[in-house]
Amino acid sequence: MPLSPDEASRFAVLLESNAESLAARWSELAGAGLRGRLSGAELLRQTRDLRTAFQQALAAGAADVNDEAAAELRAQLSELSSNRARQGFSATETAISVFALKEATLQVLGDADDAATLRDYVAFSAFVDRAALFTFDSYVRVREALISDQAEQLLELSTPVVKLWEGVVAVPLVGTLDSARAQVVMERLLQTLVDTGSPYAIIDITGVPAVDTQVAQHILKTVVAARLMGADCIISGIRPQIAQTIVALGIEFGDIATKASLADALRYVLGKTGKRPVR
Questions:
Q1: Which residues form the STAS domain (predicted)?
Q2: DSSP for 179-217?
Q3: Where are the domains of the chain?
C-alpha cells in the first residue's frame, strides 16, 4: 500500500532528525555486502545523498516512488544504478544497498513496539522496497545498454578492413556472418573503398565455419554494393567442404572470381594489374 500523508510526514521527520546516525548506519550495512570494493567515504556520501532524497520526497508527500514528489529520489536512484553498473557491481548488490535503509531505520526506531509505529514501519518498508525495485530496473536498463555498446564495439573489431597492396583491400571474415555483422562488413568495406580509392576488394571467408544460403546472400549483397562503388570483388577462402556445400545448395556466384586462399586472390589481383601473372 502507498504511504498515507501522515505516515510520509512522520518518516520525513525521522529521517531529518536522525540524519547523520541513520546515514552512518545505512552506509555500514550497505558496505557489508560490497566486500570493500567501494571506499567508506564514497559509500557514506551516497547514503547521505539518498537519505536526503528520501527525506525530501516524503516531506513533499510522496506516497509512492513513482509520484511526482519523488522525482529527485528517482534521479538519485538512477544515478546510483548507473554508477554501480559501470563499476561492475551486480544488480543484487545495488538493490541490497537500498534495502539496507530498512534495517538502519528500524535500529533508529529502537524498541518501539506499539501498533501505530509498527504499522508506520511496515508502510515505510513497502516504500523502500519499491525504491529498491526501481533501482534494480534502472540497473538492468543501464547494464543492457552497456552490453549493447560493447557488442557493437566487438562487432566492429571483428570485421577489420585491411590494405594489402596499393589499390587492394581485404576483409578477412572470422566466425558466423549474420545480418547485423553483414551490415557492418558492408558499411566498413564501402567506406574504406571511398577513403582509399581502391579498385579491388578481397572478401576472405577462410574463417567462416560454414556457408549456407543466408551467408551467401550476405556476401553477394556486399559484392554488389562494392561494384556499385566501382570496385571489383574477389572471394577467397573457398575450401573443398565449402565448395561442395555451395554446389549442393545451388548457390550461384555468377561472374565473381573465387579463389582457394587469400594469397591466391592477391596473386590474381596483382596479375590483373600487370604486376604478377594471373594464375
A1: 158-269
A2: HHHHHHHHHHHHHHHHHH--SEEEEEEEE-S---HHHHH
A3: 5-154, 162-273
Domain 5-154 has CATH 1.10.490: yes
**pTM of this structure:** 0.60
Give CA–CA dist 80/162, Å, rounded: 42
For residue 254, count CB atoms less than 10 angstroms from its CB and return exposed for 0-12, middle for 13-18, buried for 19 or more: exposed
Q: In angstroms, rounded to a whole number, what is the distance separating the alpha carbons of residues 200 and 244?
A: 27
- The CA distance from 164 to 268, in Å, is 13
Architecture, CATH, for domain 162-273: 2-Layer Sandwich (3.30)
What the block records as the C-alpha cell of 11 is 518518516
**In the sheet that 200-207 helps form, which strands lie side by side, from edge to edge?**
162-165, 168-174, 200-207, 232-236, 257-259
Grid coordinates standing for 219? Answer: 556476401
Three-class SS state of 4? coil
pLDDT in tens, 21-45: 999 999 999 888 787 788 888 889 9
Q: What residues contact residue 158 under an 8 Å CB cut-off, 6+ apart? A: 174, 175, 181
* 3-state SS class at 89: coil
Helix (H, G, I), strand (E, B) or coil at 175: coil
The amino acid present at 122, given as its one-letter code, is V
